[in-house]
Structures are given as structure tokens and as C-alpha cells.
Specification:
Blueprint lengths: L17 H11 L8 H6 L1 H20 L7 H10 L7 H13 L5 H10 L4 H15 L7 H13 L4 H10 L8 H5 L7 H15 L1 H6 L7 H22 L1
Amino acid sequence: MSIWGNLVGGFIGFSFAGPIGALIGSIIGGKISSARQAGFQQSFAQSQQIFAISLVILTAKLAKADGQVSKEELIAIKEKLKVPDHEIDQVGKIFNKAKEDSLGYEPYAKQIAQIYQNKPAVLDEVINILFYIAEADGKVSNSELAMIKNIAQIFNLTDIQFEGIKESRKGSDKLNPYIVLGCTKKDDFATIRKKYIQLSKEHHPDALISKGVPKEVIEESKKKMRAINSAFDKIEKMQS
């Protein structure tokens, strides 16, 4: 079953506070109470819904970052988030509501950071997918880059983590392996290998799915994993 199925309706009967709850409440025509918020977040299926809705909201804000929403970006949002034709209307409701509301992206990013505060690899993946969307029209604009970097800071990701995500978006022949792994040329091989193993465990697609990342967007996680593997292989060859 697609994660996009009944995305909005799935919130009816549950409790969810903050700007995300208010936005969904405005769509379904009712207020979503905060009383049962903790229980809502504990469900695996609901965690996937939260991730999906978070992506749609931040994507809507990102699409406005350079002052316009291009046709390429709209097509990319549908294709890259694997939204099926029969679900596009309800996903569009969330996208348009987020695009039109008076709130900036910061309150949403802060709530997402709170939801996944114990799952930093999931927050890392949100940033990875935002880059994926921003690349839709062929380049990431300065305003888009600034917004993604600020969201990463709201997520409490370090500059080293942010640069690693950005670098991993390059082709394997162009990426700097040390930046991808968050290391330097001064680090010994044992330290680099330890970092590689840590990242491999955190960003393995199965691990991310178990933490609530939907299968529909896991392909970008696989690309990130390939970049991590490629970076380590490069360093291993250089030091052998």
C-alpha cells in the first residue's frame, strides 16, 4: 500500500499539535488535539505518514525559496516523491496549503526536529531529499541552498554533516571522499574506517525504513549509501 494513500484522512481520530497539526486540521475541517500526541508518534505507519507530510510541507516552502514554483519542480515533486496519479489531489491540498499559509518554513522545521530528535539519520535524510527536489530544474539556487542549510541547522546537524550530505549528491567520480565521510586527510585509517561503519549503519535503507522513512523515497537513501561506500573505497585505495 502506498504511503500516500489516505494521507490526510489518516490523521482523523488521532492527536497532533503544532503547525503540522494546525495545517492538517485546516484541511480536514477540525482541530487536532495535542492530548494524544505522544501515542500518535509511536505508531510505525503513522511515523511514515508524518515523514511524508513533513516532506510535502518543506518541499512546498522550498519551491517558493527562489521566488517561483517552476513546472519542472512541480513535476519533480510528483515523480521524485513517487506520488501516484490517484493520490495527487490530496497531496496537492497539503502542498498548496503549506505554500499559501503565512508561516515560514522555520516553525515546521522545528517541529520536525522535535519529532525526530532521537533519530538524527532521519533528519539527515530529509535534508538529502530536499536537495533532490531542489536539483529538479538543473541547479540548486543560492536561496534554496541557504534555506536547506538553515533547516539543517534547525535539525541540529553540524556543518560537517551538512557538507557531507551536499557532497554525496555529486557523482562518484567527482565527490570528495573525506567530506562525504566527515573526515580529513589527517585522520588515520582506523578513524576513517570507524566513521564509515557508523555511517553505513545509520544510513542503510533497512535501518531508515525501520525508523519511519517510507519506501517510496528510499531510493535516495540507497544513492547516499552508494556515495558512502564509494568514498570509503576511494580512501582505502589511496591508502593501500
